[in-house]
Design goal:
The structure is a homodimer of 515-residue chains. With 515 residues, the first copy, chain A, is α+β, with helices and mostly antiparallel strands. Chain A has 3 domains: 109 residues, Nucleic acid-binding proteins (OB fold (Dihydrolipoamide Acetyltransferase, E2P), Beta Barrel); 30 residues, no CATH class; 285 residues, BirA Bifunctional Protein, domain 2. In chain A, 32% of the residues lie in helices and 23% in strands. Chain A is built from 17 helices and 17 strands. An 8-stranded mixed β-sheet of chain A has the order 7-11-12-17-16-15-14-13, with helices on both faces. A 5-stranded mixed beta barrel of chain A has the order 2-3-4-6-5. In chain A, strands 8-10-9 form a 3-stranded antiparallel β-sheet, with no helix packed on it. In chain A, a hairpin with a 2-residue loop joins β3 and β4. In chain A, α9 crosses α11 and α9 packs antiparallel against α12. The interface between A and B is large, with 99 and 99 residues.
Amino acid sequence: MADANAENEGPLGPDGKPISKKALKKQQKQAEKAAKKEQHKQAAGGDGNEDTEKEDFAKDSYGKCPMNQSQERVERDLVPVQSLTLELAEKKKDEKIWCRGRLHTSRSKGKQCFFVLRHQHFNVQAIVAVGERVSKQMVKFVAAITKESIIDVEGYVRKVDQKIESCSQQDVELHVEQVWVVSAAEPRLPVQIDDLSRPESEDDLAKVNPDTRLDNRILDLRTATSQAVFRLQGGVCRLFRDTLTAKGFTEIHTPKIISAASEGGANVFTVSYFKGSAYLAQSPQLYKQMAIAGDLDKVFTVGAVFRAEDSNTHRHLTEFVGLDVEMAFKYHYHEVMDVIGDLFVNIFKGLRDNFQTEIDTINKQYKSEPFKFLEPSLRLEYPEAVKLLRANGVEMGDEDDLTTPAEKLLGRLVKQKYDTDFFMLDKYPLAVRPFYTMPDPNSTKYSNSYDMFMRGEEILSGAQRIHDPDFLSERAKVHGIDLEKIRAYIDSFRYGCPPHAGGGIGKRWKQDLLW
Amino acid sequence: MADANAENEGPLGPDGKPISKKALKKQQKQAEKAAKKEQHKQAAGGDGNEDTEKEDFAKDSYGKCPMNQSQERVERDLVPVQSLTLELAEKKKDEKIWCRGRLHTSRSKGKQCFFVLRHQHFNVQAIVAVGERVSKQMVKFVAAITKESIIDVEGYVRKVDQKIESCSQQDVELHVEQVWVVSAAEPRLPVQIDDLSRPESEDDLAKVNPDTRLDNRILDLRTATSQAVFRLQGGVCRLFRDTLTAKGFTEIHTPKIISAASEGGANVFTVSYFKGSAYLAQSPQLYKQMAIAGDLDKVFTVGAVFRAEDSNTHRHLTEFVGLDVEMAFKYHYHEVMDVIGDLFVNIFKGLRDNFQTEIDTINKQYKSEPFKFLEPSLRLEYPEAVKLLRANGVEMGDEDDLTTPAEKLLGRLVKQKYDTDFFMLDKYPLAVRPFYTMPDPNSTKYSNSYDMFMRGEEILSGAQRIHDPDFLSERAKVHGIDLEKIRAYIDSFRYGCPPHAGGGIGKRWKQDLLW
């Protein structure tokens, strides 16, 4: 029993366990080895003064770990930064914990050093102060650790008297007794995480320009905002798939390298394919339709889409991730519009209910209003939109397509009138849609096609497709399309095909820009 | 009340509702219109004999629907073929139901016509026989409907005395009183669904060769086997993502068009990119690692992967769907191997528990044994595998890679010894792995890398990656790689990076072949 007590109070090794004789021996051996390799202090900015080191009673409580080569499978809990709470402080009053994170900032002040330990979008204040367990040399070592280095610290979680406003963990701080550098960052950061995280609204402070941001994408990924954006993106895809899977959809994957430039050949990338050439698919639409003609009934696919559009706008990207849906319907394409409308509502609700932390985090840097939507989704018809726009000064013909400014204005007008940031615009003019779009049965002007909008940005385009091969050929001819080039597509419908409709959500983030 | 009764017993329109006076009027008008357009009988093989038609008392009970342009949103239940069961037959004893499917086969026999109605991998026998509601002309019409046409039928679900062995719905048949062609197939099918569905084992019967199969992929997709394969593929991706999401992984999407051929430039496709060129990414690995250096900690991605390998084997595909994982670990890469091993177990169990119908369906055409696996997964080390192979006649050095025949043999030997179709092979020789693989800390021969196998086929390759930029440069130099070309990659690790490992599952189905 006395032994056990002694162990609890005795020195703890870097593996977090009390140092038994055997372990001590092992540790000493390791320490000697480390000293031999001169890895101990130098790499992290120590002065390499061997005399000082010899006198250092805390020399086994800090240093630079050898490069992790999976030397040993240590069984030690690392408490995540986000779990450092008041509750934990109370629970682990007499017990030290280990925690891994990045050294976000540090400030040395006489015999102590304050630093902030960060993990993803959580951070906590830590202090290492000269005392019974911590030597002067150790404080000096910690003060010299480069920002963004990954460190393991051991210490007590302590309640603070005054909330720490600058940290996510406001109620506690770490009183640190061991510090080990797991992976050191180079001394000079090309750009500071704090600068990358600065709110758009703080006009007086220097902003990081987009080029610098992208040139240092690794650092930019570490901001709370980027962490939240990636989680949200993953969440959108998950909600998309889960909603459709629950409705009996099957996920498919469609070819990206294709043998013929299907949609007329404009805006298509050419690939050298051994001795010949091939093309990059501009959309999975034809394959989705083949899946429908092949009786899969309801399909979706998430994947890369390529467009050779040499324009520098946020709507013209050479590569983006498309979320595509296609569905056989019974009698009317509105059955499909209902499914897609519900899909969006489900995504909006899922984000609102499960990703509020992420949304709040992004809002701190990029302010925006809460997203409004109706349930069921608002469906307008094209003539209503034209009327609304004309009443607000836009001059356009019945069968003209919407310009980008008109779309933006329409978004604002619909928001004013219906209090929704999302709506579906049905019955586009036939003239502005692709050849495979089903014409409206009651009017030669319009078609069974739709776009969907979020805040005045088109985010989905879709339609009932023509499933009759003869009529499809006829419409292709009207559009001046060479039937030979789309023969395989047209032939897909020769052996019976259910009426169907679908659409594609373009997550038009530019992949190149993300990395 | 009398009226209501009359309605229940009165004639039903093609919309499934009893025909009220108003509706009747409407229907008559529609019928006249249809007659005017001569759409009624001719298109589906009717003889166009107007005299016969005029005498036909059932003329409003069958015909060819006009092309669906979403003319009307009909509120009618279509009972799926798979729901046509004994229970339904009892429940709907006095009530007709509507059902949509493909006319799979038909056989005319005097005053009646038997046909099989198919939807996906379900089918049911149907009969239309001359009687009070069905005319001679109607039976003739049904007998002439081309195979694979999509039809709507109305009729009674009736119990059969003897099980219908050739159908999935063995206990019931449909007694049909209305038949409408929704989408007609061309009269001559280039290949029969039954031929495409024939079990591999029936050696005496003609097989469809792969070229014919692929040239008629739309029809091939309609076989029960293809329907099941696509559902299984979707299931694998879902189980992959759900398992990892539950463990806190974030889904990412990585660029496919990249500016530099990263992995040495071999086997890479070149894309014409406006005035310059770009390349197609051979793997998402570098981006996954950037995500780790960017603090996302645990990521996965499902997407297209491109390899310019001009070989005609089932392991060399120019395009496939990769399921990739990357994860920061605390102390040892076996933490990651454990996660991947569990991932596979979860996928195997999920398929076994939720997709047994699909597995059984595929087994009917392509016979295979139930898949065996251990929990937790078996982990062998490379030297053990070499020993096992040598004991069975394979000559190889300690640091030689496994040949494809050796892998297959190893699969069989492991199955014999451990009774598992899945295992993980750890500690590959350093010499046969990419430059970024972490060497074993205890031996210069081996590395912290692994492959995973199913039935002697490598299905995942992975490793602990080098997260130290200086050591990474050193290893790249040893491999003769131009550091300039991988500078961005190496620089990713300059600002601290946690130790990490991962792997990629190559779902090496050839997309081109799928469509």
